[in-house]
């Protein structure tokens, strides 16, 4: 199942527009903040699909009956670009366990690339709801590799994937390889360049958040 934020009029579209805007991208702090805000919106939208049970909450004047979430998800992000988006999710699921994965694309002179994974730090994900966040879903190769590794290690109950901008090709690749995953996306762009950049996209999210890497 695919959930698209930009198909419904909301403030999320304003944040996505600012992330894309070439002039606003000069404000690195605002770029990170907008990523974080979208993480919060995704968290709210995902929370609407979760299970709740009414419980009694003691107030200074009596007892209130409130539906409370029954199972918090494990928040997983792909370093480094995913950190602000992850923080937004964590702001709302603020008692969740977290997992961190290092995965990056290594490109050759011929523009061919392979995905490298070097670092995993996760709790036990068996029987858990897992949300994996990465701001850009270009080819989908990194996301598929990471999620397949997690699924091979753990018997995950539910898998949710969160990205701000995706390519149509990346979405197709993820759906073909992770058919049970639910995708939560800000927008889907049709074009992908030979260097696997989404067009119009927004550029390199990691560099825009934290500075250019060597």
From TrEMBL:
One of its GO terms (molecular function) is glycosyltransferase activity. Keywords: Glycosyltransferase, Transferase. Residues 17-211 form the Phosphoribosyltransferase domain. Pfam families: UPRTase (PF14681). CDD domains: PRTases_typeI. It comes from the Bacteria. PANTHER family: BIFUNCTIONAL PROTEIN PYRR. This is Uracil phosphoribosyltransferase. The lineage of its organism: Bacteria, Pseudomonadati, Bacteroidota, Sphingobacteriia, Sphingobacteriales.
């Amino acid at each position: 199942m695919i959930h698209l934020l930009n198909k419904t009029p909301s403030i999320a579209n304003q944040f996505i527009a600012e992330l894309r805007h070439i002039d606003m991208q000069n404000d690195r702090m605002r770029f990170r903040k907008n990523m974080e805000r979208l993480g919060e919106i995704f968290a709210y939208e995902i929370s609407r699909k979760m299970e709740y049970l009414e419980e009694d909450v003691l107030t200074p004047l009596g007892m209130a009956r409130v539906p409370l979430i029954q199972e918090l998800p494990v928040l997983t992000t792909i370093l480094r670009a995913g950190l602000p988006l992850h923080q937004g999710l964590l702001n709302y699921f603020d008692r969740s366990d977290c997992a961190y994965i290092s995965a990056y694309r290594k490109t050759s002179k011929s523009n061919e690339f392979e995905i490298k994974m070097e670092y995993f730090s996760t709790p036990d994900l068996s029987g858990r709801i897992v949300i994996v966040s990465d701001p850009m879903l270009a080819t989908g190769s990194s996301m598929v590799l990471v999620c397949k590794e997690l699924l091979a290690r753990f018997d995950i109950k539910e898998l949710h994937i969160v990205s701000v901008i995706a390519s149509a090709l990346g979405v197709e690749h993820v759906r073909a390889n992770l058919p049970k995953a639910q995708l939560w996306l800000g927008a889907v762009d049709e074009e992908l360049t030979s260097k696997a950049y989404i067009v119009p996209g927004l550029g390199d999210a990691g560099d825009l958040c934290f500075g250019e890497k060597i």
